[in-house]
Amino acid sequence: MLVNSFSLCYHNKLILAPMVRVGTLPMRLLALDYGADIVYCEELIDLKMLQCKRVVNEVLSTVDFVAPDDRVVFRTCKREQSRVIFQMGTSDAERALAVARLVENDVAGIDVNMGCPKEYSTKGGMGAALLSDPDKIEKVRPAREKAEVLMQELELPGPSTPLLWI
Ligand SMILES: Cc1cc2nc3c(=O)[nH]c(=O)nc-3n(C[C@H](O)[C@H](O)[C@H](O)COP(=O)(O)O)c2cc1C
């Protein structure tokens, strides 16, 4: 996970977990209203995100990532910008980096799902599948190291501090 290590300390924090079909913007704002310190979006798939365009929605005061079929895949807003972690499903470091670059100015951190055991995630080599294939992990490692270097260039909001890639 890539976070701004100064502004997003996880110690003793109330966190809304990532939940597919649940962790959308209304739920995240409600969680902030009820005292959450950090909120995760639902897992969003890299290939889907890479089809999206970033659109500023003047009517709702949101930033929308809109698919070619006009579906809003990810919606966020200024109020959660310093609190929201963008979680993606990916099995490819280059795609992950491209998605990170797409959302970098609108979120506080970026998380790659490496724990989901559901077929939704594992069928494409994502989620828990990333951990269960040692050969793949070995192949991914150099790409990840490359990604770490490139990640240093990402501009996340908040004070300028060293970035963490967990
Ligand atoms: C409906 C639902 C959807 C979930 N979707 C995700 C997800 O997209 N990404 C993820 O990492 N975990 C997902 N999880 C797992 C939760 O984030 C959390 O880790 C799990 O529910 C255990 O939380 P608990 O220990 O507080 O019960 C999901 C869980 C539920 C119930």
From TrEMBL:
It comes from the Eukaryota. Residues 15-140 form the DUS-like FMN-binding domain. Pfam families: Dus (PF01207). GO terms for cellular component: cytoplasm. Its cofactor is FMN. GO terms for molecular function: flavin adenine dinucleotide binding; tRNA dihydrouridine synthase activity. Gene3D superfamilies: Aldolase class I. The keyword Oxidoreductase applies. The keyword Flavoprotein applies. InterPro entries: Aldolase_TIM (IPR013785), DUS-like_FMN-bd (IPR035587), tRNA-DUS-like (IPR052582), tRNA_hU_synthase_CS (IPR018517). Keywords: Flavoprotein, FMN, Oxidoreductase, tRNA processing. This is Dihydrouridine synthase 2. It comes from Rousettus aegyptiacus (Egyptian fruit bat).
